[in-house]
Amino acid sequence: MNITVIIMMMIMIILQIMISGTKCAIDEFILDEEIIRNMVKTFGRELSSVGTEQTCLGRIEENFQRFNQEVQWFDGNKMMDDMRNDVMYMFNWKKHSVERIANESERIASNHTYDKNMEIDYYNVKGVEIKDNNHYLRSLDSGSRPIKLTRNTNFDNAYVNLDHSAIHVPVNVYDKSPDVVNDIKWSEHLTQFFKNNLAFDPSLSWQFFGSAKGFLRLYPATSWRERDSYSDKPLIDFYDCRMRPWYIKGAASPKDIVILLDTSGSMTGVRKSIGQNVVEYILDTLTDDDYVAALKFSKTVQPIHSCLDTLVQANRKNIKEIKQGLSDVKTNELVDFTAALSQAFTILQRFNRSGDGSQCNQAIMLITDGAPGTYEDVFRQFNWPNIPVRVFTYLIGQDVTSHSEVYWMACHNRGYYTHVMNRAEVHEQVQKYIPVMSRPIVLSGERVFSWTPIYAPTYETELNENTWKNKQNYEKINRLRAQARYAHEELDQSLNNADTDDDNDDIDETIDNTEESEDTLMTNNGNRKRKRHHQSIDDLAINENDDGNVVSIPYKQIPFRIQQQYQHQHQQQQQNQKNMKKKSVSLYTTLATPVFDTRNYTNITKRILIKNVYQDAEIETIRIANLLGVAGVDIPIKEIEKLTPSFKLGVNGYSFMITNNGYLLNHPDLRPLFDGFLKPFYHSVDMSEVELANNTLGPREPDPYIESIRGNMINRTHGWKKVAVKVHIDEMKRVITRVNHYTHGMIGHTPFSLAIALPEPYGSYRLTSQVDLRMKYREENFTHYFRGNQWRVHPEWAYCDNPHQITGQPQQSFSTPEESILQFLTNDLEKQNFRWRTSSIRPKVYETILCDKDLIQSLVLDANLTDIPTERCSSNPNYRDEQRIKTFGIVSTFVATRSGLTRFKDYRSKDEIKMLDDLPFYHKHDRAIEETYYKRTVDFYTNNKDAFVYFVDFDAGEQHERRVAATHSRYDSNFLVTATHALFIGNLKHSSPVAVVGIQFRYDTLHEFFLNTTNKFNVPCTHLDVDCYLIDNNAFIVLSNHKTNDVGKFFGQIDGDILEELVTSGIYQRVHLYDYQAICLDAEIVSGPSSNPYLYSIFALVAKMLKSFITWLGLLYMNILYGNDVWSMAEKTYNVRQDNWMEMGLPFGSEYTMITDLDDNQTIARPCDKEFDLYEMINFSTDGQSKDIVCGENPKCSRNFLAHYIPHTNLLLIISVNNPTCNCQKKKLSIEPIEIKYDDEKQCQLLKTEKYRRRPAGCYNYHPQEKEIRQCGRAYTLSSTTTWLLLLLLSSSSSLSLILSIDYN
């Protein structure tokens, strides 16, 4: 008993000693705020001194300050007006071109003599062939000589031929039909007028004529570019110009459409499927200027989508919702046509009287398999005698017996009747209502112009469930193949080298993504050789071995060291892809106008059905109002942006344009792509979704100031307003709050309005001083300021335009923008062979070089003022450049200016630069005022004029750790800290940003300098229980005393408790933002056997083995019949093996390679709204803050932290003392956007709420002469024999078009 007591007492004594020791250790870290204040002053002053002297900030500022009296306020309204007029003039040039196409089309068509036996040859956009790396376009006549295509940057860098136009024919149009052949024939004369238009306006992009017959004549001739299908199966080209928005808007005025889908008991099976397809195609013909209501009716009338029970704007979101509602359509026994028609008329009348909707055309689309009557009393009540509502009827099914009733409905209500017998006919039959809608405008003869919202080329892939799933499967297959092949090659090499060196380091060799070597390796059988290619993962999946086989081994047999090596290589490649510049997409708007058949009458030969045979009857002259097609020109959005250049708007200034619906044409925050796919609603992003006022309103709640600007722009009024806004930057991880000054005005003769936004207060001031090149070129050698190769200019700014660069004529080309600047200064300036670019109401004539006077003269001035030798940067006579570089690990310095000039100096050797994973900073970020670092630095200057802005790459610490693990070396030339400082000149608030200087440090040397500084002041940052962080003005970690892995991370992710205290104390502010262009990824829920990856793999394996065995038996039988050549042919063509049939059906070898990779989660991508919090430092007081954070519920258990601003920087020092006796769980904060979940009621409200819009000018919905037109479709009954014959003929697209030509034109 005594022994037990003694032991217990000893344990208590030991515990007391440990606790006392720990308490002493904690008490030892009492942080003296005065000492820390002195420490941060010293640290900040030292960094500022190094940055100022090394970047020549002082000298450059002195040079610019000589011109501080020339900083002047400029009139933003005048700038906006000048830009607005330039855009308007450009649009007028395009309008002139499309008008000429339409006029000449009408003239040529009227003079054309129809020949039903005509044969024609034309260049088909799909007839491309490649010979010797040259692209050619074939014609239909195999005997004709192909035309050569060359790349042209004016046409989206496509291969084109400027001497010819080409034809695109949809799959559902028979190009040998006499009507199509004759129209192709006369339209070939348009080529010369296309060429004339290009000569008049060299900035013209694609010109085209879309025929009502379905074909498209496109200039210049080009090859049709296919979308990326992410599949081995070829894509079917469903493009039909008649279904494009530019054609539909050009052909007819806006419309209100009520769709009535019959869901009675007879509309089941195939009929139901055809009816749903008809609804979908009708919806596809609607534009943002139209309104639609989709109803289903049987005994009762109900909306197809439960929320959309009335007319709503036919935008993509509403169309998508209606289409999704179609999948829930159920059929019932009874049908009530009276109720359905009455409700449709009631909806249309209500909107017409209230002033809502399109206030133009109105129509009812009736989709049924037959009606028991004509319901004349309903039409008499609602529609007669004026017939404001057209009725289009679609009779569904091939074996229907009653057609006269629905035919009567259409013909007596200014509509059209069509009979849709199967799904193959839906596409062609649905669009027949468009020419009927166009009759009033054809009869008027008015030249009406229409404009589309933005759109991307057809070869860009849109994001939907199928394309996203295909991409995931495609990447998974490539990943598995690459892993297996990589592992096999490494094992192969290690086995070959094992005879000479068992510990050969070649096994650890990584794949080089940039260089390709060809080392000869022996295959396993030893009698064949193949080449080893060092390639990226994607390349490995595409390029096969010489024998065509994908050689692989089971993943479980791959040594762990090689698995690690592959994982590092794969992660490195992913990081490289992330660091690459984001893919951009070319966006366009189209200007279109209808082309009329100028004939008022035409002769037709009636055909009647006698004993299942069509026979010609008498010739009849009928009244017509036919649409020949639509002419149009594409206008690249980049052409608009050229006329509103960023160098005129200044840093953080920008322009944007909106349509009459409030949708964006361009905006710096318009993000049309997600992972390379076009977002579903990229063309209908509203201005209010990207211009976010700095308020506390909830999601989708309109801000009155932003809505006021939007409304004024839609109403085409001039005005200005200042609004406090919040702007996300840098991959939506940083935020800036500021005041923007908006100025806006209309673009004449278009539905568009232009606005410019300038940041307050510096955005309204400019340095006006320049070098007068014309006066001083004889006195001064300007090229002296551009000596050497340590300078760059903005690669996309048009300092000067060379003659003929757009028309494709021979010209002097320059490999870099810098060469063109030197050429101008050394040659063109001396010879005075240039003109200053001016605003003009006519297109520019490129007879000589056109230069931007303000831009290039500012560039020469900036080059002069920043041309300072390093030895002159410091005023200290004892300053030693080499010592500072070594002490602080300086690797480079740079300066970027307002004119797009970037100067740099790199202190690393060429070998060190070559070892970098990415381009040096000054090469990667050579766009000066458009770069994020430049924008951040200038904005931060308004908070602290003396500060350098420090930052590192996101997740830089993690990347560093991966490189260290791969190279087994702590030295990492890629791990850098960048600091930048803005340079303003002027007086007081009347100052303007002119440049930003920068310096880069090695992280390890800066880290060492920080710890040395803390040790001098006895600040315990070297102790393991103390965490010291330097975080930037957006709360990202720039430096950590112990945890290198945390560098580049959001501080709230590491210690959210401290960050929340900093927000509470007013050092940081939390800014709540919304992303209305977001994409959400939902986990795909798989049911059945495939939900278990291992069970699925067994089923898949059995199925593939069975397929392989059947194939092997078939080949064996053929081999008996035809000899052994069958096997050799099968091995080369189909990758089969005679000796092992089991390998034939396996995707990656003799085993199902890497079965663990099958459980990768598949996702479904969909558009959604997201919200997120970002952080911004707002208090730069030198007073520190110290506080205890209680851990959990025990008030005695806490940890202490101190925060102190570091002068002359954007950094905050955080010192956190951890208490090892307490289990303190640190809170985690996130800045990742999360989805906003709307309930059903809110979702319905958002769908039905229509934002303010303005209707397009002009409406053509009636013409008195339309009463003379009798064509309203054909009604006839086919016998069973004819029906089966027709189905047989419909198996080919040519027969389909032939059958469709039975109808009147």
TrEMBL record:
Gene3D superfamilies: PAS domain, von Willebrand factor, type A domain. Residues 256-437 form the VWFA domain. It is a single-pass type I membrane protein. One of its GO terms (cellular component) is voltage-gated calcium channel complex. InterPro entries: Ca_channel_alpha-2/delta (IPR051173), VDCC_a2/dsu (IPR013680), VWA_N (IPR013608), VWF_A (IPR002035), vWFA_dom_sf (IPR036465). GO terms for molecular function: metal ion binding; voltage-gated calcium channel activity. Residues 499-519 have a biased composition (Acidic residues). PROSITE patterns: VWFA (PS50234). Keywords: Calcium, Calcium channel, Calcium transport, Disulfide bond, Glycoprotein, Ion channel, Ion transport, Membrane, Metal-binding, Signal, Transmembrane, Transmembrane helix, Transport, Voltage-gated channel. Residues 490-534 are annotated as: Disordered. It is found in: Membrane. Residues 1-24 form the signal peptide. This is Voltage-dependent calcium channel subunit alpha-2/delta-4. It comes from Dermatophagoides farinae (American house dust mite). The gene is CACNA2D4_2.
